[in-house]
């Protein structure tokens, strides 16, 4: 099968998200004039080592936030965010924070998630996350299409849960990262293997 996205695919569900998988989930926390916010984004990844940088994209809008959602609206006010890594054990709480809640809703309280303060930015973080990346916005780009915004941030502080450090390495098998697949499907990473590059 071949299709041009502009012409449609003719399938019951859009296959694009199912093709680009698995995708890590950036559980983004922000602070703004309406309070604290927490929401998951599966258009998320690391993009640079030195200095360390990440990006995430928001692709929806809410009537009470104009052309975007709460996260991007708060970044326009405050310019700082924290990426919290989602473990399998937190899947239901993460899913609760994915709702299109009214602006000003504190998803930490709504989902019963323990909150902690960041060290290098004025922002909340998920207290018991396996890892959290404190970030300052580098730039936000408006992409083609309605309400598509990509935000790039420089990582200014990194939290790692002690039980996830094994022999000096951050061991993801200790918490099983949750990943987004297509449609409403998710997976958890439970198996890891290594490959050496040619010449190593």
Automatic annotation (TrEMBL):
<feature type="domain" description="Flavin reductase like">
    <location>
        <begin position="18"/>
        <end position="172"/>
    </location>
</feature>
<dbReference type="GO" id="GO:0010181">
    <property type="term" value="F:FMN binding"/>
</dbReference>
<dbReference type="Pfam" id="PF01613">
    <property type="entry name" value="Flavin_Reduct"/>
</dbReference>
<protein>
    <submittedName>
        <fullName>Flavin reductase (DIM6/NTAB) family NADH-FMN oxidoreductase RutF</fullName>
    </submittedName>
</protein>
<dbReference type="InterPro" id="IPR002563">
    <property type="entry name" value="Flavin_Rdtase-like_dom"/>
</dbReference>
<dbReference type="GO" id="GO:0016646">
    <property type="term" value="F:oxidoreductase activity, acting on the CH-NH group of donors, NAD or NADP as acceptor"/>
</dbReference>
<dbReference type="InterPro" id="IPR012349">
    <property type="entry name" value="Split_barrel_FMN-bd"/>
</dbReference>
């Amino acid at each position: 099968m071949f299709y041009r996205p502009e012409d449609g695919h003719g399938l019951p569900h859009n296959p694009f998200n199912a093709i680009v998988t698995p995708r890590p989930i950036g559980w983004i926390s922000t602070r703004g004039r309406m309070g604290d916010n927490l929401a998951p984004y599966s258009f998320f990844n690391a993009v640079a080592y030195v200095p360390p940088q990440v990006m995430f994209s928001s692709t929806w809008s809410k009537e009470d936030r104009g052309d975007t959602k709460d996260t991007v609206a708060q970044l326009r006010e405050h310019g700082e965010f924290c990426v919290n890594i989602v473990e399998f054990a937190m899947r239901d709480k993460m899913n609760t924070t994915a709702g299109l809640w009214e602006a000003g809703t504190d998803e930490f309280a709504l989902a019963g998630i323990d909150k902690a303060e960041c060290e290098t930015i004025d922002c909340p973080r998920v207290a018991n996350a396996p890892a959290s990346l404190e970030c300052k916005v580098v730039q936000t780009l408006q992409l083609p299409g309605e309400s598509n915004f990509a935000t790039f941030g420089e990582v200014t502080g990194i939290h790692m849960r002690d039980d996830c450090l094994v022999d000096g390495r951050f061991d993801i098998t200790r918490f099983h990262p949750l990943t987004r697949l297509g449609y409403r499907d998710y997976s958890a990473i439970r198996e890891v293997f290594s490959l050496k590059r040619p010449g190593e």
